[in-house]
Amino acid sequence: MTVTLITGANKGIGFETAKQLVELGHTVYVGARDVERGEKAAAELGARFVRLDVTDDDSVSAALATIGADEGLLDVLVHNAGVLGNEPPTGPAALRVFDTNAVGIVRVTEAALPLLRKSSNPTVVTVSSSLGSFWAVTNPDRPEFGMPLALYSASKAAATMLTVQYAKSQPGIKFNALEPGTTATDMTAAFGIGRPAEESARAVVRLATLGVDGPTGTLQEEGELLPW
Fold first, then answer.
1. If DSSP codes are grouped into helix, strand and coil, which group holds residue 76?
2. pLDDT of 219 over the 70 cut
3. pLDDT 10s digits, 22-36
4. What is the pLDDT of residue 192?
5. Residues marked as catalytic
6. pLDDT at residue 55 is higher than 90
7. How far apart are the C-alpha atoms of 116 and 123, rounded to whole Å?
8. What integer is the mean pLDDT of 195-201?
9. What is the pTM of this model?
10. Is 126 helix (H, G, I), strand (E, B) or coil?
């Protein structure tokens, strides 16, 4: 049985990723800050709930301790929790966005590493963004060129860099980031754009189910390497 933890999994891409992985036979832990929403999502999915706030060290430690006690290992970790941060750039706003989108990756990864090392095929997937790609945001032919989301873009560039650096420092574990595709979620509701979350979740699932010889240290979009 493959044991999987997905952060921010009570809705959107995280929820749909959990649904698809449960269907593939994974034991999925739905990580969510809100207990009521998280438990409801887990019950609907046939998954397990663990309270996990990526901005809180104690919450992260407790969540991984629970998984460790119940399962003894972790095979797949999906960093999905994130915030858009489309407010005017200020110091407090930047701290909030980076704490969730970048520092949260460090908190959860560090807490998960001991359990991931016990897996025969450990895999970490970061739901990043092409808005964190220097190539994409400076390319007039790309939609990112006209989307000035400074804090979100910078935090996702950091998320991708963290993924690549973890791939270098942890060669026994696959670390990959992806642009999941413009998706209709709560984060994009104000823009009125995006495809169904289940379609984008398929891209996450593909990276979450790589074989032992799969790639590591990449940023991907629609199954292809994305310059960044």
1. strand
2. yes
3. 999 999 999 999 999
4. 55
5. 129, 156
6. yes
7. 8
8. 81
9. 0.94
10. strand
- The dihedral through the CA atoms of 214, 13, 18, 83 has a sign that is positive
* CB 69, CB 43: distance < 8 Å: no
Domain hosting 73: range is 3-225
CATH number (domain holding residue 139): 3.40.50.720
The number of folded domains in the chain is: 1
Is the Cβ–Cβ distance between 15 and 197 less than 8 Å? yes
The angle that helices 91-98 and 150-169 make with each other, rounded to 10 degrees, is: 40
Distance CA 61, CA 83 (A): 21
Q: How far apart are the C-alpha atoms of 54 and 60, rounded to whole Å? A: 6
Question: CA 21: distance to chain centroid?
Answer: 14
Measured over the CA atoms of residue 218, residue 223, residue 225 and residue 228, the dihedral's sign is negative
Residue-averaged pLDDT of the chain:
93
> Which pair of structure tokens corresponds to residue 228?
């960044």
Q: What is the pLDDT of residue 144?
A: 85
Query: What is the maximum alpha-carbon separation in the chain?
Result: 50
